[in-house]
Amino acid sequence: MVEKAILWRNFGNRIWMYTSLISKTCITAAVGILLCSCGTQGPAGLFGKKTAHEQYGDRIIQAGLRETAMGQQWFEAADKSLANPNPVTLPYSETGYFAAERPSAVGLKFIAKRGQLLNITLNKKPVSGFAVYFELWAPAQQPGNKPKLLSAADTASNAIRYEIKDDGDYYIRIQPELLKSGEYTISLTTGPSLAYPFQPKAKAAIASFWGAARDRGARKHEGIDIMAPFRTPCLATANGTISRVNENKLGGKTVWLRPSGKDYVVYYAHLDEQLVTDGQQVTVGDTIGLVGTTGNARGGAPHLHLGIYTNAGAVDPLAFIDPVVKTPAKIVAAEEVVGKLVRTNARGSKIYAEPGTAMPALLSPEVNTILRAEAATANWYRVVLPGGTTGYINHNHVDTLRNPVRSGTTPDPIALLESPTPDAPRKLIIEKGRQIKVLGTSGNYYFVEVASQNGWLNKATL
Predict the structure, then answer these.
(1) pLDDT per residue over 213-247, tens digit each?
(2) Distance, CA of 91 to CA of 422 (rounded, Å)
(3) Dihedral sign computed on CA atoms, order 213, 215, 217, 219
């Protein structure tokens, strides 16, 4: 069909404008080829197979849309989200919106510690008929290299659980399919990857942490000390094998547990009694020994020294067993604003690189500056300025565009522009004397409503 050929050639330029040229059945069939999120898995990708995101990208290419404007925007958004992710602090949650007419992706960057179990959940609206792909990445180790894919949710899952292997930065990429609008809420939390070595009701508290000075500064503490009553049961933190039961000068009576499938051992020291033997298989919660004061703890308060040792030496065990699990702050910023244009409402409003005011502001926009609210988190909005700058602004510092800043009439015929730039294409010519509502500004331009349309006018023309 000639009409169908026209549709695909103009895919990147408002595809919906051509729906009147062909039947609804033809549109459904053609777009369905692209939007199907399932497919045969091929080589490469994660663990030798392609992720759902990679499979979908292949379908864009197979449909001949890689070089169209919309196809290019989709791939560029995917790359940009990993090249310039938005920094956040865990735990974190946000609600965002993807618009069908703007192919986009979200990148989030955060710091995690070895031993933490990262939990990522994503909920979307609508639940069906709207595919959103999300993945966990590690940044490139060398300049010029690509980030490393660590885990990806498949199309039937809305969660990722991943044990952090190294301290450092990690990225999340979230991207929807083309031609679909929808809302998402993502939540990132961390918890321990190992069980706590005492029962919940035991009176045990961490009193000394990793790196504390020992022997008048001659050495540093290679573990944590958990205070507990004498002969309190010490429990296995994981399923695994007892690799060693012995006694030494510093640790006194000790037990070494190798968790199944891990590249480290858990070290229990200062026990009053060891209740396992070399080579014994244990499960989470089995009693390893009893709290004591043996070794260099003799004469002091009873406690368990817990350490974790790898082939490279000791690592901080706190993240592995920390019983304190924090939840993301409640989202109080109005979620109905997300995905819409807003404007700053006060002098002194500031936009930051990440939620919070601890770091210097990226910029201080003028009052009534137009922004797009991309997501809401706690009492912040992640916003994008017309020039592309992304950052976070306090939710109290923006207003909707419900009421105009000012009104007037055009003194002469004026071009209504697509964007606030000198080379922006015009949407239409506004004749002299038309009523104009000014909704906000950006640099030398007004964002206006006129003739039932929105667009930009150069301030010098009014």
Answers:
(1) 666 665 677 899 999 999 999 999 999 999 999 99
(2) 42
(3) negative
How far from the centroid of its chain's Cα atoms is residue 400's Cα? 26
Give the domain extent around 359.
Answer: 335-399
CATH number for the domain harbouring residue 174 = 2.60.120.380
- What's the chain's Rg over C-alpha atoms? 29
Q: Per DSSP, what are the bridge partners of residue 86?
A: 108
Residue that is written with structure tokens 């990262």 in the block? 118
Three-state DSSP state, 406: strand
Cis ω on the peptide bond leading into residue 425 (within 30° of 0)? no
Q: Specify whether the CB–CB gap between 305 and 297 falls below 8 A.
A: yes
Taking every pair of Cα atoms in the chain, the longest distance, rounded to a whole number of angstroms, is 94
User: How many Å apart are CA 185 and CA 162, to the nearest integer?
Assistant: 19
Q: Are 433 and 450 in contact (CB under 8 A)?
A: no
Listed residue (275, 262, 293) closest to 234, CA to CA: 275
Same domain for 176 and 263, yes or no, is no
Parallel, antiparallel or unpaired: strands 406-409 and 398-399? unpaired
Q: Same structural domain for residues 212 and 295?
A: yes
Total-model pTM? 0.86
Task: Give the C-alpha separation, 394 to 378, whole Å.
Answer: 9
Q: At what angle do helices 24-35 and 2-9 cross, to 10 degrees?
A: 40
Q: How many domains does the chain have?
A: 4
Q: Measured between alpha carbons, how far is 428 from 451 in angstroms, rounded to an integer?
A: 10
DSSP per residue, 203-214: --EEEE-TT-EE
Report the chain's mean pLDDT, rounded to a whole number: 88
Residue 354: which CATH number? Answer: 2.30.30.40
Same domain, 141 and 163: yes
